[in-house]
């Protein structure tokens, strides 16, 4: 495969290849965070996780289909999964566009570096599009790696033998690419129009808000829209406005139109998909083109100094002065650094997905329901992901070169810095999600059990915060962590095989304890003791620890060894040695 | 009397000396100029004095006490302006200075007043809420200066403090350095601007190829070496090339 692709790539212009490679590194924001990230490894892991998801979903589809007996159930299951695959694909591409926000448009760095060079604007434009599309296509291919073959095989072959299979196969892949293009193009259109219509300064401010809004929109639509449980649901008049306004249903109709199974009454949904696709393709192409013509110049001409937000700059104290300093530094870094925001958004996506699933369950319930282990598990998982996510993001550096100021102004012992970091974690990760859990709990009864659960959740938050900070004798965002070096697949399986069963078992145990006061007292006492022990353990260790700052590597004077006999004898070895030394 | 003293301080990187056996004293009330060509070890010495990097051997004393005996107390009395204006650029100028004040455990109200006052004097008040990422090099340098002086330090370490400053700000800073020294601070000032050094320093230390080659008052060096200016003294002690010949070679190479 590589032998086939490499000569083709070699025929592309050199400036395009260089730019494509550079832009590709920047499309994946997580990689940009690490200093020596390994792009192919990271992409491989990214693809691996999506392929695993594809296999899990496909097995679910196959098992559900095999276990159905009545023909109307068969249709319901196949429709449900067709829509599910399309909606999931749109969600994944949507989240990808949030992660790769702004990466398709020229930024100030591109304008300042590339404008003086003899490179045509169209080369920059094509390299940008190619780099974004590479990751987007990788996501489409890997997420449909199993379902893209099994679904056409099972459904298509049943409908019309080999021809049916081929027709389903073409319809499936066309729909998936069209649906993901629609999501990707919609975001590009909105961004492009905003960039063109607004002054650059205002656009930059609005862009961060739009990014978060898009993130919420994709998750909200995916988790809150009704699932297609049966054909009568599709025909119900009360649901028509949802189908009319939800693109995943348009593309579901498009898929069925292409494979020849769409009921004529639903043809209008498929037309919406065609119209939407046309509008978005035209809109994104025009806005991209106009942006490259106008924005490059606008970016260069903009003043360097962007005035700060006027008005009230209120920053209440969050404890002692050191805790306040660490708290605000953490919060501001998280809000203002796109890289950190996006990295944390990965975890928040999971947290929000869990929260929205609970909300969806609550919305359908007419009256307050008794507490379920599912709800308890959801709140635990939200807390777990919020804390683990933030503590992981803490380890990503914001500016290693600027760490000197923290070292120069370190006038207090490590113990106090540790307390400040812990407090920041409690304020930013534990408290908000505890409040969200409390709000979600309002639809559950009895009240005393809900209160007891919230108390347990608070203690659990403290335990998880202390567990995630064991050995973390650092100020947040002052050290480097290489996400490209961590193996996502292992982490995924660890969560799937160990953490989720553990949390499920804990939720069952708690539910049982909530109905038995003595057991509840035992459980609460045990958790409280664990929380206090962990807190004391970390404080004790922090007393003797040295605050650790990661800096850029020390200046080391090395010789390249070019005159050594080895450098002449073995060029490969010499290159490796030089690379290692430098 | 407050003074900074280096005794046989050395720093080796992979066995190669960056600073070799440096010994000198910077006294309160005078500005000590620390000079040397690029790569001679000036910034390394200053980083050792700040405690940012460990020395390989030797001793650094402030007011007669080794700084590593109580590094935290020493840091509380020291202000440092680094060679490069590395700052957390996602913060605004006011936020950065507030953070430094909080780290140094200043009372909130007095630190806010002092920060506002300094920002006004350094003509940064109107841009205090703008992100540092948009600041010019000179503005960043002013933020570094304010952060270094905010806590009224006894020892002030200035590594190329004039870098990026406009003429008016440079003139203010020049007077400020002299004023601070006159008020009893120990000021160690590293710069390539020999003119400025000659105007504000009474005492210079010259470093060449990691070793001290001069440690004396400018006046004494002038009479000792029978040279009229610091530039000529420096050229004789620390410049190996013939600048006009080098310039000719470069121009020839470009023309070729």
Helix/strand layout:
The complex is a heterodimer of chains A (582) and B (256).
Chain A: H1 2-10, H2 14-27, H3 29-33, H4 39-66, H5 71-99, H6 108-114, H7 121-143, H8 147-197, H9 200-224, H10 231-235, H11 240-245, H12 247-259, H13 267-301, H14 321-336, H15 338-364, E1 369-370, H16 373-394, H17 404-408, H18 414-440, E2 444-445, H19 447-468, H20 488-514, H21 517-544, H22 565-569, H23 571-581
Helix pairs in contact in A: 2-7, 4-5, 4-7, 4-8, 5-7, 5-8, 5-9, 5-12, 6-13, 7-8, 8-9, 8-12, 8-13, 9-15, 12-13, 14-15, 14-18, 15-16, 16-18, 16-19, 16-20, 18-19, 18-21, 19-21, 20-21
Chain B: E1 3-13, E2 16-27, E3 31-35, H1 42-50, E4 57-62, E5 65-66, H2 71-76, E6 78-81, H3 93-103, H4 108-121, H5 137-149, E7 155-159, H6 167-182, E8 186-190, H7 194-200, E9 203-208, E10 211-217, H8 218-225, H9 230-238, H10 243-255
Parallel strand pairs in B: 3-8, 3-9, 6-7, 7-8
Antiparallel strand pairs in B: 1-2, 1-4, 4-5, 9-10
Helix pairs in contact in B: 3-4, 3-5
Strand content of chain B: 15-25%
Strand order of the largest sheet of chain A: 1-2
**Rounded radius of gyration of chain A (Å):** 27 Å
User: What number of structural domains do the residues of chain A give?
Assistant: 3
What structural class do the secondary elements of chain B suggest?
Answer: alpha/beta
The oligomeric state is heterodimer
Please summarize the sheet with the most strands of chain B.
6 strands, mixed
Uncertain runs of chain A are: 30-36, 556-582
Instruction: Summarize the largest interface: chains and residue counts.
Output: A-B, 39 and 44 residues
Mean pLDDT of chain A: 82
| Biggest sheet record of chain A | 2 strands, parallel
